[in-house]
Amino acid sequence: MCCEKVRKAVIPAAGLGTRFLPATKAMAKEMLPIVDKPTIQFIVEEALKSGIEDILIVTGKAKRPIEDHFDANIELEMNLKEKGKTDLLKLVEETTDVNLHFIRQSHPRGLGDAVLQARAFVGNEPFVVMLGDDLMEDNVPLTKQLMNDYDKTHAATIAVMRVPHEETSKYGIINPGEEVEKGVFNVKNFVEKPAPEKAPSNLAIIGRYLLTPEIFEILATQQPGAGNEIQLTDAIDRLNKTQRVFAHEFTGKRFDVGDKFGFMTTSIEYGLHHPEIKDQLRNYIIETGKKLAAEAPEAKPKKNK
Fold first, then answer.
1. How much is the pLDDT for 62?
2. What global pTM score does this model have?
3. Which residues in the chain come in under a pLDDT of 50?
4. Residue of 173, 188, 231, 271 with fewest CB within 10 Å of its CB?
């Protein structure tokens, strides 16, 4: 029988990070910092704030820095302690007090295959999948919101968010059924990256999934889909044919750090709230805005003919 308490999270981090080449040629994309914190640390912190007890990170080649980041660095800690840099010491120690596990996905066969690597770790329990490309902000962490839904439904629940209809081809999209309570929908079916004219809604799957262990039996037989990869969305659609799957609409703020523009805008937004640099960054943006406005063609006086 499935354990009713959600205790475990899986963070897939085995992708090649090709959108950030050449930086990711020998560096894990998940270690790229938002100001001064690697993106994967935001995901781990969300899991811990939600009450998750055990975390499995699925890694691949060139991902060793992720393991090193969450390991103790005795030499660094001693150096900071001797110099009385207690604030920095606290920041370093925050990354070591986590119950983390690691497994390698030898070949990048898609998100579904990465999740399948967690089968032995998860066992017969419900669990959460957290993708590193999406950073979420809300009063209650999104992962905790999904866990609260599970306490009521004991069913798989997928986080979704409304996107512009013309962008549906970038996402897995749900075909929503009845709204069983505010912001929680029954799902008729899932469609992977439909063209806007074929999309059943504009409710897009974002990077948080609460799944039941039956998903592993499906993933083990799942045929490659879009991109010739094992798609998690396809497996969830099959799961929905044998047990209920719900969608939870997220209304907080989502930062997409999966491409260069999203990464840059996220860095700016976080920088504007960072205690060390927020004032300098705000002044820089204001002054840069003035310069750009002055340099714009429409701002320059026209010569009389």
1. 63
2. 0.87
3. 1-3
4. 188
Phi first, then psi: give them for residue 157, nearest 5 degrees.
-140, 130
* One-letter identity of residue 205: I
Q: Is the peptide bond before 22 cis (omega within 30 degrees of 0)?
A: yes
| Burial readout 82-119 (b: 16 or more C-beta within 10 A, e: otherwise) | eeeeeeebeeeeebeeeebeebebeeebbbbbbbbbbb
Summarize the chain as % helix, strand, coil (round to 5).
Answer: 40, 25, 35
How confident is the model over 88-97, as pLDDT tens digits? 656 666 656 6
What was the pLDDT predicted at 76?
Answer: 73
- Separation of CA 179 from chain center: 25
φ and ψ at residue 136, rounded to 5 degrees? -115, 140
Place of tokens 């992962």: 143
Return phi, psi of residue 208, to 5°: -140, 130
Yes or no: say if 7 and 52 are a contact pair by the CB < 8 Å rule. yes
Sign of the dihedral through C-alpha 205, 207, 211, 213: positive
Task: Report CA-CA distances (Å) from 250 to 143, 159, 217, 273.
Answer: 10, 6, 28, 22
Q: What is the pLDDT of residue 67?
A: 82
Residues 6+ apart with CB under 8 A from 15: 29, 60, 108
In whole angstroms, give the CA distance from residue 129 to residue 115: 8
